[in-house]
Amino acid sequence: MSIDMSQFHQVFFEECFEGLEAMESGLLSLDIGDIDSEVINTIFRAAHSIKGGSGTFGFTVVAGYTHIMETLLDEMRDGRRQVTKPAVDVLLGSVDCLREMLTSIQNEEDVNAASVAKHQAALELELNGSSGGGEQTAAPVQEIVHVPVIVEEPEEEEEEIPEEQGWKIAFCPYLNLLKTGNDPVRLFRELKVHGELTTNVNIQDVPPFAELDPEECNISWELKLVTDDSEATIREIFSWVEEDCALELSPLAKPKKIKKAKKPVAATPVIEAEAVKVENATPPAPAAPVIKKPAVETDASKNAPKASSSIRVDTDKIDTLINMVGEVVITQSMLGLIGENFSMDKVGLLKRGLAQLERHTRDLQQSVMNIRMLPISFVFSRFPRLVHDISTKLDKKITLKLVGENTEVDKAVVELINDPLVHLIRNSLDHGIEMPAARVAAGKPETGTIELKAYHRGGHIVIEIVDDGGGMDKNRLFAKAVEKGLVEESTILSDKQILELIFMPGFSTAEQLTDISGRGVGMDVVRRNIQSLGGNIDIISELGKGTTIAIHLPLTLAILDGQSVAVGDETYIVPLVSIIESINITEKMLNKVAGKGETFKLRNEYLPIIRMREIFNVKSGAATKSNEGVIVVVEGQGALCGFLVDELLGQQQVVIKSLEANYRRVEGVSGATILGDGSVALILDVPGLVRLSVR
């Protein structure tokens, strides 16, 4: 019975991409000139797993490519080759190439053969043309020599012609070959592609039927392959099972010798060549194509595998979920018994049962949401490579520190936060950290530091990008905004508002356009993307000291803790994490500013008032008087303001439904939810309402 191997492809690709991340992380942590056997073994094991799995599933192009990487890594871990920067760069390029190949295969697309050939040539050049990273330098030109003309007379020579071209292959698998997931039949199919294959099976070692273990391979084969391919090509087919079998190759027949007239050699013209004297030089490497190092790819999302539709879950979370389901089933059975013979004297039991069901449902909901939680390391792990590549391109010395990698966040947030973080990290690398000479002149260490950290605060996850670079010059920011016509020169802005200018569309302080600096179309998009996740972004910067950018995001995008408020006959949900406090207002607390609307004095600070009736044009219900309403003080865009509503209804958890997907985008509204009575309530977008009220 044949097994459909495609059912295992998804798991295989996920494990491969995890292995590539481990290889990339290990390569970036290697010290040049030193041999850290533990790290190299980790990289080697990841490569070996990818090679073995690729061979098992028939992805021979991946298996063959990875085999060359293994050879280079094997020489490093055995001490036969030093860890050099060129070797690490070539291996990093090979990781990118493997990622491209696997992504193409996963998407059922053709593998980019030109890219594979280019990276493989670089890999083979490093493997065969380098003895460990030493560079050869040529001495100055010493003299001019004349190469004499050489003419050879035709003569007979002997040429070896095989009677039948091909190979005898003795293939004896070890007992455990089948247990590793390998299948000899796949090997034979691949051999058939290369020529005419004849097989002869040896079953003398097969035990009696009663003692037969179907998971052990007790047979061996003698194969005959008629082909023009070289021995190396044939051995490559067996490369991914080389540790699980005994293999011998020999030519099909000894070649016979025939007499053949040698072609006359044309007279070689006299040429002048520069004779170069090289002392203590190793023999030249075999001719190899010139490999141009590709431009640094600064977009970490490019060539990334498509988003996985599955996640790995800790078994403890599964056990907790199963226990919760069991509790719900017990409670449901209890309520069912009460309902069968219900009478008024059982009302107390019914209430207790419903309260118990509510508690179990809440716990069940929490358990289900925990299953979707992933460590933020799934995002952070991509940035060491990005920092390595861009700092190398910019000739800067930069260290990346990762803090709080195990902080858990919803899978949807993990998938959507990557692009904004890529842009912010690139800005820190390009605009934030100074050149080494400038840092030394400013009394700083030559190597700059970028810290990427994550932690929980309340119902949010906070991600901070902290650099010890030059900081932001507020005067320059304001002047640039005036120059671009984004603000009036007479406008008075606080320091925080000046820093917020970088989020305006079209704002950029880059003196020249590069693939890193961009065209000023990034930071406004970054803020918009973060706000679409229900979060916000803040900046703190000090000239000469550095910059901190903090992103505040909800832990999950599916469920929200909210405060229900009444505005006329309508009900709205205000995210609980945005609420600072709620206050019953009196007439004396309100102040009208000509042309600016109303303000509210809270502890010697004046806050702008947003009347929800006017914003949403609510006509139903009794009109709210200023001394009868409630001010909900919220924080949005880093500033405080007050929402004037009719009444507070209560706190509750709500399931977020996308308004844009089911209707259209509404400014000031981030989504909708269905209340217990079946009515629909809009979930307020606090930062959006603040911007809307300002306009």
List the helices and strands and how they pair.
Layout: H1 9-29, H2 37-56, H3 60-77, H4 85-106, H5 113-128, E1 141-146, E2 156-161, E3 166-173, H6 184-194, E4 196-202, E5 220-226, H7 231-237, E6 245-251, E7 256-261, E8 272-276, H8 315-340, H9 347-371, E9 373-375, H10 377-380, H11 383-394, E10 398-403, E11 408-410, H12 411-416, H13 418-432, H14 436-441, E12 448-457, E13 460-467, H15 474-483, H16 495-499, H17 523-532, E14 536-542, E15 546-554, E16 559-567, E17 570-575, E18 579-584, E19 590-593, E20 597-602, E21 605-611, H18 612-616, E22 630-636, E23 639-645, E24 647-655, H19 659-662, E25 669-674, E26 680-684, H20 686-694
Parallel strand pairs: 10-12, 17-26, 21-23
Antiparallel strand pairs: 1-8, 2-7, 3-5, 3-6, 4-5, 9-11, 12-13, 13-15, 14-15, 16-17, 16-24, 18-22, 19-20, 20-21, 22-23, 25-26
Helix pairs in contact: 1-2, 1-4, 2-3, 3-4, 3-5, 4-5, 8-9, 11-13, 13-17
Structure description:
This protein is α+β, with helices and mostly antiparallel strands. It has 5 domains: 5-128, HPT domain (Four Helix Bundle (Hemerythrin (Met), subunit A)), CATH 1.20.120.160; 157-260, Alpha-Beta Plaits (2-Layer Sandwich); 317-371; 375-554, Heat Shock Protein 90 (2-Layer Sandwich), CATH 3.30.565.10; 559-694, Beta Barrel (OB fold (Dihydrolipoamide Acetyltransferase, E2P)). Strands 18-22-23-21-20-19 form a 6-stranded mixed beta sheet. A 5-stranded mixed beta sheet has the order 10-12-13-15-14, covered by helices on one side. A 5-stranded mixed beta sheet has the order 24-16-17-26-25. The longest helix is centred in the middle third of the chain and has 26 residues, at 315-340. Mean pLDDT is 78; it is low at 131-156 and 261-306.
